[in-house]
Amino acid sequence: MALILEFAGQAVQTVLVVAIAPLILGITRKVKARVLRRIGPPVLQTYFDIWKLMHKEMVLAHNASWIYRVAPYLVFAVTWVAAALVPTYCTDLLFSWSADLIVIVALMGTARFALALAGMDVGTAFGGIGSSREMMIASLAEPAMLLIVFTLALVAGTTQLSAIAALFTNTPVGLRVSLGLALLALICVAIAENARIPIDNPATHLELTMVHEAMVLEYSGRHLAMIEAAAAVKLVLYFSLIACLFVPFGMATEERSLSALAVGLLAYLAKMTVLAALLPIGEASVAKMRVFRYPIFLGSAFAAAALAVFLLFVSRGF
Amino acid sequence: MPALAGLWCVVGFFATGVVAIVSGRRPAGTPLVYGATLILCLGALVLGLLHLLSGAAATSARLPLGLPWIGAHFRLDALAAFFLVVVNLGGALASLCALGYGRHEPAPLRVLPYYPVFVGAMNLVILADDAFVFLASWEFMSLASWAIVVAHHREPANVRAGYIYLVMASFGTLSLLLAFGALAGPAGEYSFAAMRAAPPAPTLAVIASVLALIGAGSKAGIVPLHVWLPLAHPAAPSHVSALLSGVMTKIGVYGLMRVLFDLVGVPTPWIGLVVLAIGGITAAVGVLYALMQHDLKRLLAYHTVENIGIIFIGLGLALAFRADGIGWAAALALTAALFHVFNHSVFKSLLFFGAGAVLTATNESDMERLGGLIHRMPHTAFAFLIGCMAISALPPLNGFVSEWLTFQAILVSPQLPQWGLKLVVPAAGALLALSAALAAACFVKAFGVTFLGRARTGAARSAREVDGWQRSAMFILAAICVLAGVLPGFVIDTLAPVTSALVGEAMPPQAFLPWLSIVPITASRSSYNGLLILAFLAGSATVTAMIIHRFATRATRRSDAWDCGFPLAAPSTQYTGSSFAMPIRRVFGGSVFYVRESLDMPKPGEMRAGHFHVRVFDPAWRALYGPLARAVLHTAGTLNRLQFLTIRRYLTLVFGGLILLLVVVAAWR
Would you say residue B324 lies in a domain? Predict the structure, then answer.
C-alpha cells in the first residue's frame, strides 16, 4: 500500500509538470502582451496550438532521415523525465534519488544534442545556423550551470535535489552571498537555455536572429507540436529548479499528510505563476543581444557562479 | 601462473608477426594474421578479466632473459590486469574490424607484420616488472606503431607525421629512462619489486614523478606534448588509428600510474596538483582544437587529447587525496579515472572504426566532402551515433558515468587541507564542465556534417554500407557503451581490486544495491541510476508516441525542404564543419587559438569567385616547438663551421680541450 502511494506521489508530479507546462507558457505570453499594451492570446492558447498542430498535415523534407522523425519524441521524453525528477510539491518522492542535479543538467544536454542533430538533418542553411549557435550557447551555459551545482553542493553537502530542498526548507541557511550569486547565474542560464530575450526571441520571424527557432524551422504538424510541448516543459523545468533550490518554502518534506501535500501543491503553483509573470516583465525591459555578445552575458553568469564557488572554498560562511 | 600465461600470449603475438612476414602477400594472409591476433587478444582479455574478478593476488615470474645478472621480471597484479582488459578488448575488436577493413589495404606487408607485434608489445609493457623490460617493450611498442603510421609513406604528410612521432617517442622514452634512473637509486636496483621495497627520498621522488609525467604524458598526449598525436593517429589505417588513440594512449596512462601510484611511494600532494592542472588544461584545449578540425580522423585524434585530460583530472585528484590520507575519496577519484580509461578505449575505438567505414565507403575522411551518409550507411551511422553520444557524456551512456564520478570526486575536494589545491580543484571542475559541453558541440558537428544533410560530393552520394566484420565490431562496442552506461555498478565493482591495491581503499560495493543504482559516497549525498533513466526515457517516449498516434492525424507529405521559402538545390549551401565551428572559434579565438582568417572578395563588376580562408594553428607549435626547432637549427648551423677547419685548427682545438680538461680535473681534486 505504501509503495502504491509512493508511486502515486511520483505519478502526480510526472503528470503535473506536463499538464501545467502549456498553461505556464500561456501566462508568460499573456503577461508579456499586457506589458506591451496588447491584449494577447488567451491563457489557454498554448493548449489549443498544440492540439491544432497535432491535426495538421505533416510535411517532411525528401531527405529527412529517421533522426529527424525520432528527435521530437526523444526531446520531449528527455525533457519530461528531467522535469519529473525535479522536486515540485514534495521532497523524497519514489524516484527522486535516481538522478541528481548533475544528471538533470546532463539530460538537458541529451535533449539539446538530439535537437541540434535534427536541425542539421535536412541539410539547409538555417538548420545549420541554429544548431551551431545553440551548441555555442550551450557550451557557455553548461559550465556556468555546473558551477551553480558546485555552489549548491558545497552549501548543502549533496547534489540530490530532494536533499537540498529539504535542507533549505528545514534548516535556516540564511542569506548567503554565494547563494545569491548562484541564483543570479541560474537565472542567466535559464534565460539562455529557454531561448528567451536577451539571448533569443521565441516570437522572432527574422531568420538571421533565430537560434532555437532556426533549428526547428523545418518541423511541422505533430512533430512541431512535440517540440513546442517540450519547450514548454523545459520552461517549467527551469522554473521548478529555481523554486526548488532558492524558494523551497511550503514544500512537503517530512510530514506526508494530505494537508501538507495540498499546501505544497498550492505553493508550487503559486511559485510557478509568480515566476511566469516575472519572466516577461524582465524580458520586456531589455533588448535582444547580438549573437557575439552572448559570451559576455553567459560569461558573467559563469563568473558569478565561479565567484560563489571560490567564496565557499575560502569560507563556508559565505 | 597467470603471468606466464600472459607471456605465452605475447609470444603468440610475436610469432604471428613472423608468420605475417611469410604469408602477408597471399590473399589468405590478412584473415590469418587478424584472426590469430583476435584469438590471442581474447585469450589475454579473459586472463585479465579473470584476475580482476577473482581478486587473486599478484603473481610474478622471472625469466633468464636480457641482462644476465638481472633477468627479466614479469608480474600480473590488479592494475596490470585492468589494463590487459583495456588493451585486449581494443585489440580484439580492432582485429575483428580489420578482418573486413584490412582487405582494402593496398600494401598489406607494410601493416600485417607490425600489427600483432604492436599489440604484443603493449601487453608486454603491462606485464613488465623491471625497468629494462618496461623500457625495451615501450620502445618496441613505439617503433612497431611508427612503422604502421608510415605504412602509407607515399603521402608526404604521413612521413612528416612519422618523423614527429619518432622524435616525440624517443624524447618520451628518454624521460622515462631518467625517471627509472632516479628511482633505482645509487644501488642500481632496476626491478620494480626493489623500487617498491625502498621508495626514494622525497626530492628524488619528485624528480622521478615529473620525469615520468613528461615521459608517459607525451605518449598519452598531455598538452603541450600532444602535437604528434593528431598527426600520427590519423595517418595509420583506421583500425590501427583506433588502437593508437583508444589503447596506446592508455599505455601512457598506465606508465604514469605505475610510477606515481606504485613505485615512488606516496609523493607530496603537489604532484597531484600538477597532474590536475595539466589535466584541466589538456581537456579544454584538446576539445577546442578538435572542434576546429574538418578531417574526421584528425578530429577524433584531437579529441583523444581531451579525454586524456579528463583521465588526468581523476588521477590528479586521486594523488592529492591519497597524499592527504583521505582514502575513500582517492578511491572514488581513481575509480572515475579508470572507468574513463575503459570508456574512452571503447568509444574512441568505435568512432575510429566508424571513420574507417566512411573511409572505406567513400575514400574520403574530410567532412566537408561528405554528408548524407545516414541514408547510404544506416548501420554505421547508428553505431557512430551511439559512440558520439557516449563520448559527449550524455546520459544514459557510459561516458556520462565516468564524468559524473569525476564531478563527485571534485565535490569532496573541500576536504583537502592545502589551499592551492582548494583553489585549483574548482577551476579544474569548471574546465571539465566546459570540455564536456564543447565535446557535445564537437560531436554534433562530426556526426551532423558527415552523416546528416545532403551529400556534398559524388563519392558520398554513391557510398555503400561496409561489410559485416566492420559493422559487427562497431555494434559490439556500441553495446558495451550502453551496457556500461546502464549497469555501471558492475564496472565499478570490477575496478575495486585496482583501487584497493593502489590507494588502499575501494569504493563501496555497488552491484547489488536496490534498483542497481550507484552510490559513490552515501545515498543522501548523491546517487545515479542509469538503468532507471533509460527505462524512464523509453517509457515516456513510448507513452508520448502512443498518445500522438492515437490523437494526432497521420497525414504526412514528402516535399522539398522549406528553408524559409528559399530552398537552394546546391548541397554547398549547407552548413559545413568550419561554419559550424565558427561561433566557438570567434568566442575562444582571441584567447586559445591562433587563427588567421583572410577574405578575398572580388571588386564590384569582377566576375571571379570570392575566397575565404581560415587557418587555425596550434599555439604549442608557435610558442614551444617553433622556437625550439629554430634554436636547434641555429645551434647546428653555428656548429657546422667546425666541419670545415684546417688541420692546424683542429689540432689547436684538441689541444685546448685537453688543457681545459686537465685544469678541470686539477681543480676538482
Answer: yes
